[in-house]
Write a structure and sequence with these properties.
Radius of gyration: 34 Å
Distance between the termini: 86 Å
Number of helices: 1
Strand order of the largest sheet: 1-2-3
Strand content: 15-25%
Order of helices and strands: HEEE
Structural class: alpha+beta
Mean pLDDT: 79
Shape: rod-shaped
Largest sheet: 3 strands, antiparallel
Number of strands: 3
C-alpha cells in the first residue's frame, strides 16, 4: 500500500534516531572534582564605634561592619558580647 518511497523514509527516520541516541550515549558526564584544601578565614578587627561605657547591662546595638550585620551588647552581668 505504501510503496518503496515510504520504506526509504521510514528507514532514514530509524537511522537518524539511532544516530542521535548513539551521540547522546557517547557524551561524557561532567566529572565531580573534590578537594581537601583547607580554606582559612581572614579575620579582622573592625571598630564598632562603641565603647563599653556606651552600653548598659542587657542593652543591644545593631551595627553593620564591613557589610555584615553584627549585634553588640552586654549581658545581665555587664559582659560584652557580639
Amino acid at each position: 500500500r505504501f510503496g518503496p518511497a515510504a520504506g526509504v523514509v521510514c528507514g532514514l527516520a530509524v537511522a537518524a534516531s539511532a544516530a542521535a541516541l548513539a551521540r547522546r550515549r557517547s557524551q561524557p558526564k561532567t566529572a565531580a572534582r573534590y578537594t581537601t584544601q583547607v580554606i582559612l578565614p581572614a579575620l579582622q578587627w573592625i571598630k564598632t564605634g562603641l565603647k563599653a561605657s556606651d552600653l548598659q547591662a542587657t542593652e543591644l546595638k545593631a551595627k553593620n561592619l564591613a557589610g555584615v550585620d553584627v549585634l553588640v551588647g552586654k549581658d545581665g552581668s555587664g559582659k560584652l558580647f557580639c
